[in-house]
Amino acid sequence: MPEPDWAPLTGFRVAVTSARRADELSTLLRRRGATVTSAAAIEMVPLPDDDELHMHTEALIAAPPDVVVATTGIGLRGWIAAADGWGLAADLTAALSKARIVSRGPKATGALRAAGLPEEWSPESESSREVMQYLREGGIEGLRIAVQLHGATADWDPFPEFLDELRAAGAEVVPIRVYRWHPVPRDGAFDALVAGVAEHKFDAVSFTSAPAVAAMLMRATEMGVDDKVLAALRTDVHAMCVGPVTARPLVRLGVPTSAPERMRLGALARHITDELPLLQSRTVTVAGHVLEIRGTCVMVDGVVKELPPAGMATIRALAHRPGQVVSRGDLLGALPGGGTDTHAVETAVLRLRTALGDKNIVATVVKRGYRLAVDDDPAGAP
Fold it and tell me: Any idea which residues the entry calls the DNA-binding region (predicted)?
């Protein structure tokens, strides 16, 4: 049997927004056939240069907290490593060891134990909601609680409701923002990626952190395309997130999201591989052929047929109403470029038939337009 000329993600376009390990995720997706566009949404503040983190570290050493909440393993390890670079690691761990320590999940728990800071409690679900419930049941009014946050800015935190609920319960909250970030410069690759999302040029966009989501939403607002970006993400540009914390800013805005069961980069790549063809491809049986329409190509009986933009626009418009007649005017409106001459439709259909390899796939309905000759509609659709 000859090897197929396609892979699971052949014909699909995926945007990668990661600041860390973007090359790794992009490689995994390309190996599965995807066309990948990568542009980091954020730039991290180097920990040794993070004066805010240094200041908060010294303040906690001088006045240890009553409770410490560790939310991420990489954030806690980075904090301890930064403190070591400042000559404060021993003093920091000594101060934190005096507090009750609550971990949000197994990664944070592993980092705590590696630092000699055993946790008092951790939920099995990695749920901030369960952490809050545990703290409230134990009573936190009047307590000073240090919350290690990952990927924050001075005016944005990844767990805003969590911090607000702690304050509402009477606690004094000390946010420890580890791996703070700032937006990437304007008019670069990331702006082009955001514009591509707004113009539906991707089938999926991947997010590996909530800050990347926030950065895209903020940049879209700055560019004046926030409504278009949200409309795209709510329809045919699928948001693929590494986990529920990453997805939360989108969920609040009514954007459907999808995530793997395990919050790992490899799991995200496999999840995109499994889910995107189900979400973003359309398969019909036409003129005795199995026709699968993907983001940038069409497969006819398992053989990839590369189509130009006009051909893809035409086949999508026809497949949106399989078996039904689509007028030349409607097809003209679907073609890129915004032309007004219906002769462009005839040219696009002719080239589409040639590329597909069987002129019978697209049937002409005299004086009315064109239709896909679907096999389960022998009488013809009106």
Answer: 281-374
